[in-house]
Amino acid sequence: MTTTDVESETDIEETQGAENIASGELGPWRAWASATGPADRAAAEDGVRRAYRLAGLAEPERVVWVGSPRAAITLIRDDLSDRGPSVRDAVRSAPWAQQRRSLHVELGAEGWSAHWAATGGRLWDSTQALVDRIRTGVIEDLAGRDTGKEAAEIRLLLLDAVLGQHDAPWLAAFPADAGPLDALTAVCRNAGWWWPYARVAVLSERPVALHRDEAGRLDHGDGPALAYPDGFALHAWRGMPVPAAFLAELPALTPERIRVEENAELRRVMLEYYGYDRYLTDSGARPLHQDETGTLWRIDLVDDEPVVMVEVLNSTPEPDGTRRTYWLRVPPSTRTARAGVAWTFGLEEQVYAPVAET
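Above: the chain's sequence. Below: its structure in token form.
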């Protein structure tokens, strides 16, 4: 082994070790970002007041608690005309920019990029998607279908917020005791979103429920995927927003109800919930093709591409001697069961044939 080989392996081990350490250190940040339950109001208020002082500002005259970001926007719009100007830039943006510049100088451009990828970058996408969904939900709740002046006003007020627990991704990239960021971290650990104004700080409770799928998307079939203590809630199925009434209907679905649904996206949700195999059975569908690899089925849908699936039997028996049935979704153009199974392996039908016969 050459010296160069040794150095390369050492570099790889050091990099992997650093990533493992960073991943472990992310545990608390990940927990805070997804935390549910009552805020620690005393600890959060202490963090807010320290953030003001560290920014060179007088502490807020009042700290007001609300049940959700929606309630915060309603309060700020309707009842807090004496709040004074937003001081978000002073308490949040300026200290963040200062710490980022400092760390960027210390690590260099490439070092900063690698550091961000190993820390906050790992939490960013899923957390930011949740933030965007909350903002959209608040606008929809308060402005309805209006996309004009009222929606624009609400959007601007939402951008005045410091995100509390949902600031975890970028806070995770810096030392927890990094001056002003320590105060922001205290709020992140103990509360939801908050709005800093010159005379008043508005703090929101955290959610009481949060349900996500393995991909980090909002997902719950038996109620809100995200719910706050004051009733503000978001309903979703595998990341797709759905009406609350729609979810309540799912347990009583029938093939006929699925067929008459005009919204193609909601119909897909119905099929996933009901089960493609169950739908095929209950709707009296007939197979398109059958061979030794399986059975090809097709579901024609109005204003949507058909669902084509291959029903296959597992070649390995279960402990009790039975064999499990699997349903593989394949492209609508599939014409034979063998072609469908081959497609799942990335093969053409004629290439897959010899393998199937062994």
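The longest helix spans residues 3-33.
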